[in-house]
Amino acid sequence: MNKTVNQKAWFLILPVLVLVAFSAVIPLMTVVNYSVQDTFGKNEFFWAGLEWFEEMLGSQRMWDALGRQITFSAIILAIEIPLGIFVALNMPKKGFWASLCLVLMSLPLLIPWNVVGTIWQIFGRVDIGLLGHTLAAMGIDYNYTQNPTAAWITVIVMDVWHWTSLVALLAYAGLQSIPDAYYQAAKIDQANRWKVFRFIELPKIMGVLMIAILLRFMDSFMIYTEPFVVTGGGPGNATTFLSIDLVKMALGQFDLGPAAAFSIMYYLVILLVSYVFYTVMTNLDKRDGH
Amino acid sequence: MAKITLDNLAHSYLPNPTGEDDYALKELNHDWLDGEAYALLGSSGCGKSTLLNIISGLLHPSQGRILFNDRDVTMAPTTQRNIAQVFQFPVVYDTMTVRDNLAFPLRNRGSDPAYIRDRVQQIAHMIGMEETLDRKARGLTADAKQKISLGRGMVREDVNALLFDEPLTVIDPHMKWELRTQLKSLHHEFGHTMIYVTHDQTEALTFADKVVVMYDGRVVQMGTPQELFETPEHTFVGYFIGSPGMNVMDAQVSGDKAVVGGTEISLGKAFGTPAGKVELGVRPEFISLSAGEAGLPVTIKRVEDVGRHKIVRADLQGTEINVIVEEGENISPDMNRIVFDTAGVNVYADSWRVAPKVA
Question: Which stretches make up the ABC transporter domain (chain B) (predicted)?
Fold first, then answer.
């Protein structure tokens, strides 16, 4: 069969090209532009080469923020993935309670980020918040505006509350696709609960789990709104993650050059990690394939 | 190995069954003798898988009891019944090697490692998978996976019973034959009680000593392949077993005479006067075509040559009649009568067989 060749078909992708150009390519290029120039206002720019990149790489402030960022992502992944799986395993399989669980689980996912932040900001306040006041009344020294540990715990618990249900829902979907015969065979083979999980459930949900890990990693690595609303990056710089630091630098101090260089490196790190995830996932698929 | 007794057993999937129709499995009393190979034959939805799952303990019956060697296990969980079951679709543990798959049931029961190694080797030889023992089960073909499932079912020597739920559905035809033969020789060797669920009559008849035919949640007949063929107790058995199945036609029976469509024929045996809806059942093998004046008048519709014999499709006043004619015999256009061999005529009242009166 001969394929019809029609070069005019290229016009069909033009709308998408324009859209992507205005939403991604042009803004990104502007950032690249800023990152290699210096400005003193009045719209005057001077070529700076890789100076900003060098400065940023040598900046203790950026390394500290990166360290906090990695710690944060690692902690929430270590909590949300196992917890999400655990919740999914214990959700009812069908009937009214299953539907109810699904609705309850999706609720946190539907709340806008800054509202989540506000909820926890008020919830944790020592003077009027239910959590903060209760803890204080119990004699526990909890004050997220002054105590770095309390601030970290608040931000992590908030993220776990907000996003564990995403992991749970994905794992639940994976678990639902396992035919009953597998569980029956396991009973007959006298496999215990752990072996059922290890040899039946885990292999079957591995695919969706990788997606969950990727989504949660990317999202947590770019987190901005919720910690900004709750702690504003404080106390001190205790919860100043990469994007909070970036906004401070770009909009607070108006250091456009360093901030642009910072953004590009930030972007490359996320791209690199996502690529690694993608490769691992496609390899998993290939292993399934033959 | 055990004798399995079903005592007044019935099951409904509804929480509050009222009529008989609500039961997927109607009241049943039956003994599965120790060491016999049974086939449970029936069309889909007749309750055969339900029965199997009750025996294996995956399902608890709505009423009645199950006894293993006279011990009540009705409420005992699967793990305490010590049975093996192979399912319709392959169940393998993807992340394990073939070897680990086969060893899994033994390891979970804490068997001796040296014994496990020998036993797994033996089973692998039986299912022809010695070469693939160290491969991951993931990515094997469906029939290789099903062979692993079969192997996992057979790996334990001390099981009370081996249950098979249409295990050969996904297997290639030539492999089917081979595996069935292996199952049978395994049965001779170890004498396990085996129950084999299938809707394929060839599979049932070649595998089992005794075939249990189920229809609409009920066991309609249990017998050897020969009994099922010669004296089907229910018209369903006659129709379901045989290719083509038994011919069933409306008739009035009185003594040793029957009237079919206005023509009187002799039955050779006396049946009294059965009440209800009376039918004659005659297998195509016991009918011959004739050109004479005797017999029932039919119109031949078509002739199908299936190689070892011919199947004649004829019409008897609106009832389709199948006749098997030997390959060598000629069929001429003036053959417009059928004659029954009286040894192969069964009489049915309301679908159930009427035994002839002993003279």
Answer: 4-241
CA separation for the pair A290, B327 (Å, rounded): 48
Q: Locate B289 and state its tokens.
A: 């075509």
Alpha helices in chain B, H assignment, sequence order: 48-56, 78-81, 98-108, 113-126, 142-154, 173-190, 201-207, 225-230, 235-240
Instruction: Write down the pTM of the prediction.
Output: 0.75
Q: What is the topology classification, in CATH, of domain A50-289?
A: MetI-like fold (1.10.3720)
CB of A188 less than 8 A from some CB of B: yes
ipTM given for this complex: 0.74
Does pLDDT of A162 surpass 80?
A: yes
Look up residue A213 and give its two tokens: 């890990």
Look up the CATH superfamily of B244-354. Answer: Nucleic acid-binding proteins (2.40.50.140)
Q: Do B152 and A191 touch (CB under 8 A)?
A: no
Distance set, CA A192 to CA A83, A174, A180, A183, B324 (Å): 21, 20, 16, 11, 56
| CATH 3.40.50.300 location in chain B | 4-235
CB-based burial, A261-270: b 16+ in 10 Å, e otherwise: bbbbbbeeee
In order of B4, B7, B25, B236, B314, the CA distances from B218 in angstroms are 18, 14, 6, 11, 32
CB contact under 8 Å between A289 and B83, yes or no, is no
* Per-residue model confidence (pLDDT) at position A79: 95
Span A83-103, pLDDT tens digits: 999 999 999 888 889 999 999
pLDDT at B305: 86
Q: How far apart are CA B249 and CA B299, in angstroms?
A: 15
Q: In chain A, what are the domain boundaries? A: 50-289
Closest CA of chain A from B128, distance in Å: 21
Q: What is the pLDDT of residues A247-269, one digit of tens each?
A: 888 887 778 888 888 888 888 98
Nearest C-alpha neighbor of B247 from the set B266, B265, B260, B264 = B260
Nearest-by-Cβ selection for A181 from B89, B96, B105:
B89
Confidence of residue A159 (pLDDT cuts 50, 70, 90): very high
Q: CA distances (Å), B283 to each of A54, B241, B253, in order?
A: 94, 10, 18
Closest approach of A204 to chain B, Cα-based (Å): 9
Please, where in chain B does CATH 2.40.50.140 lie? 244-354
Chain B nearest-CA residue for A288: B139
Q: Which residue in B109, B138, B152 is closest to A287 by CB distance? A: B138
The answer to whether A100 touches A220, Cβ cutoff 8 Å, is no
CB proximity A285 to B under 8 Å: no
* CA–CA distance, A91 with A97 (Å, rounded to integer): 8
Instruction: Please list every residue in chain A whose beta carbon sits closer than 8 Å to the beta carbon of residue B84.
Output: 188
Question: Which residue of chain A comes nearest to B96, CA vs CA?
Answer: A199
Check A181 against B91: CB less than 8 A apart: yes
